Amino acid sequence: MRETVGREGGFMSETLTAWQLIASGDATLFAIVGLSLAVSLTAVVAAGIVGLPLGAILALTRFPGRAAMVVVLNGFMGLPPVVVGLSVYLLLSRSGPLGELGLLFTPTAMVTAQALLVLPIIAALTRHTVEDLWLEYREELSAMGVGWASRVATLLWDSRFSLVTVLLAGFGRAAAEVGTVMIVGGNIDGFTRTMTTTIALETSRGNLALAIGLGIILILLILLVNATAWGVRVWAVERAG
User: Fold this and answer.
1) Does residue 19 lie within any of the structural domains?
2) Where are the transmembrane segments (predicted)?
3) To which H or E segment does residue 207 belong?
4) Model pLDDT for residues 45-103, shown as the tens digit of each residue
5) Which residues contact 151 (CB under 8 A, 6 or more apart)?
6) CA distance 212 to 209
7) Which candidate, 51, 104, 176, 192, has a CA 20 to 30 Å from the CA of 82?
8) Quick count: other Cβ atoms within 10 Å of Cβ 120?
C-alpha cells in the first residue's frame, strides 16, 4: 500500500515539476522543442516541394508502370521509420556515396530522413485528392484546352485547402518520429536532440520531469495540428458552400 502511494506521489511530483519547467520557460526544454520544430517543419516543406507535384502528376498522367508506381507509393506510406533511418545512415556514412559531405549526425541528416519518411504520405494523399478533383473538372478543363502543366497547377491550387491538411498530416508524422532521427542524428546533447529522442533517453535515465514536460508539449502540438487540419477543412467546406 505504501509503495503504491509512493509511486503515485512520485508521479504527481514529477508531473508538477514538468509543468513548472514549461511555465518557467526552461531553456533546455525549449531549445529541444525549437530544434524539433525546425527539423520537422523543414522536412515537411522539402517533402511538399517534391510530393505535391509528384502526386498531381501521377493523378493526371497515364504511362506504363503507373499502377505499379502508385502501389509502391501507397505501400511506402507505412514504411518502417528505422528502415528509412538505416538507408540515410548508409548513404551519409563515411563509406557511403555521400560520406564526404560530413552530414551524418547533423540536423541536415535528420531533415533528410524525415523528409524521405513523409514524402510518400504527402505524394500518395495528393494523388488521391487531385485525382478526385480531376474527375470533377475533366470535361471543363479539356473543353477550355488547358495544357498539362496548367492542369497540374490549377488542380493543386483548387485543392489547396485539402492539401494543407495533407501537409499537416506529414508534419504530425515527422514530429512524432523517434527511430529515424535517433539513427541519423545520434541524439547529441544541444545539437541533434529532439523531443522524442530526449523523452526516450530521459525516461531511461529516470529524469521523468523533463520527459513528461516534453511529452506534454508534444501532445499539445499534435492536438494543435489536428485541430488546425479540422478547422481548415470546415472553413473550406463553408467557403465552398
Assistant:
1) no
2) 29-60, 67-92, 104-125, 161-188, 208-232
3) none
4) 999 999 999 999 998 888 888 889 999 998 888 888 999 999 999 999 988 899 899 99
5) 60, 134, 141
6) 5
7) 51
8) 23
